[in-house]
Amino acid sequence: MEIVRLVAALFLLSYSFILCGQDAKLAMPMSFSKKMLSPGSMEVLNIDFRLEGSTIRFTDDGSEPTIQSEILEANKTINKPCALKYRVFHPDFLSSDVGTIRYFNEPKLNYSVSCSPAHPTYNEVGSSTLTDGVFGSNDFHQSYLGFEGDTASVHIKFKKKTKVNCVYISTTIQQGSWIFGPSEIVVRINGGKDLITPVVDCSIKQDGTSYTVYTIYLPEKRAKAKFMDVEVLPLSKMPDWHAGAGKPAWVFIDEVWLD
Amino acid sequence: MNRRDFMIDMGILGIATCLEWKEGEAIYGHNHKKYKWDRTWNGSHQTLPIKDAHEMVFTSDGRIVLLTNETKNNLIFFDKKGKITANWGKDFPGGHGLSLAGQVKDQSLFITDTDRHQFFQVSLDGQMIRTWDAPVETGKYKDIKEFVPTETAITADGEIYVADGYGAQFITHYGTDGKIKNIFGGRGDGDAFLDTAHGICIDTRNVPHTLIVTDRTRCCFKRYSMAGEYISSIHLPGANVCRPVIKGDYLYAAVLTSSSLSNSGFVVILDKEDKLISCIAGSTPMYKDGKAVLSYQTVQLFKHPHDVMIDDEDNLYVSQWNSGNVYPYKFTPWK
Q: What is the DSSP letter of A220?
């Protein structure tokens, strides 16, 4: 009799977890991930997520948002560079992945940026995309230049010799759409020696969409530039686990700027 | 408390939680089209393989029919409890579109095959009735491989419309004798043209009847007269819609992806005035200045939903493409 009770309890316990568990995971809001702040300006942040009963919570100290984190209210104002991590919560669903929104100070454009031709489908307004201050979202059809197996060659020309501390290159990774991170980034100052920047192995599998801003710090003695070349190299062969294994990956960039 | 007593207590707690579950159960959809996900209908006990679960129909005698491109069993028949009652079909490697033709006692299936560049009429027990090849006689096709049919719609008197959604984007209209009467649509930039004309149905909710055709790339449906004249568009920004399905006063459609995000998607329901009223696993419908605003996935319930089917009790079933070979999901109305 005791065994029967025990088996019945185990069955009911399992069944209750099946029936009563939270149904599914919340999706990530379709938000921008990066934005430029004009000097002295104030940005208003709103994230559209139309699901009754959901709350978006955020942190600004680099920690992962939890159910105890501050709620992201409508019309939050931003007036200085920061990185906000956010996550959606709902009592009936598992919380979403963590998203990040970064605000940067808008650069002083004492330089011009041009770029090698992108694929015609992802080349809406050409090189000006890279300096318009508008970051792309998870819809990679807009605000990006996309390169299918080709190197994105960016040429930066200064109005006068300028000391450069670092170069920022903003990208997206959406492996399901064959968009990987760069396999290598090469920087050349005044036509000089290649400065190869180590990047994370971009062939590692990752779900969903991510955005990475690569920061390339330049050695001080080299950093006074008349012009610079930045080459963003795609992964030459997609890895075996991918549906497009063996074919070249796409690489997408949306902004290039300097400090 | 010893281990055994703990387990018994946890079981009782489980029952108690279930009894309270009504309060916190996840509800999908909006307005008067809300649903619960019936997770007992999940195929976990099924043994027949499925590749892509492409489309479904509900027969007049109460059977659910699923078309998959798995050539071990292209057609799988279920009852409403999810029990498989029959299967057949090994000849449709690109089995994609599935439609019902005929009335109560003489129903048959229309199947489009994107690999074979043909479409077929087949009896419910798997007997081939008729095969149609690419409509080269229209002059629109130089090569039969340009014809990649994704869907058919059949009128009550047996006229056929076939959508070439993965090919040249034409809608070819066949008379009751099976011969071509008309061809329209095609790829182009104007309103009357199509891009990924993935689905087609006959809208019988109003007289005269009209055709509704998917223009998936542009996230809209397009309405045509039965003679192929363009009438209007139903824009659903963010919704890469698959075929339209009419049941009662409503139009249902699976949304393959939310904008261009892979592994996403939801289901949309529109009323008789073509207004979006509910999104299953999607954002609350919203209009601004009379236009639908962007819809998107809110809950990661689906990965590439490809078709929706509604049975005679208004239960809703969703089949999915490239979703880990899953069986269709079933949803029951929530009141």
A: G
B31 to chain A: closest CA residue: A52
Q: Do A9 and B37 touch (CB under 8 A)?
A: no
DSSP states of A28-92? PP----EEEE-TT--EEE------TT-EEEEESSSPPP-TTSEE--TTEEE-S-EEEEEEEEBTT
Q: What DSSP character marks residue A93?
A: B
Q: What is the pLDDT of residues A3-54, one digit of tens each?
A: 555 555 454 444 444 444 456 999 999 887 788 888 888 899 999 999 999 9
Q: Do residue A93 and residue B260 have CB atoms under 8 angstroms apart? A: no
Q: Measure the CA–CA gap between B227 and B207, rounded to whole angstroms.
A: 14
Interface of A with B (CB under 8 A): 2, 5-6, 8-20, 22-27, 30, 48-52, 54, 91-93, 138-141, 174, 176-177, 207-209
From CA B92, how far away is CA A7, in angstroms rounded? 46
Tell the residue number behind the tokens 């063996």, with chain if given.
A246
CA distance B323 to B254: 14
Q: Are strands B95-101 and A250-258 parallel, antiparallel or unpaired?
A: unpaired
- Per DSSP bridges, beta strands A111-115 and A145-148 are unpaired
CB A32 within 8 A of CB A104: no
The model carries a pTM of: 0.81
Candidates B13, B298, B303, B323: best to mutate against A (most CBs of A within 10 A) is: B298
Q: What is the ipTM of this complex?
A: 0.88
Q: pLDDT by residue (tens digit) across A54-69?
A: 999 999 999 999 999 9
Contact A133, A121 (CB under 8 A): no
Contact A27 B264 (CB under 8 A): yes
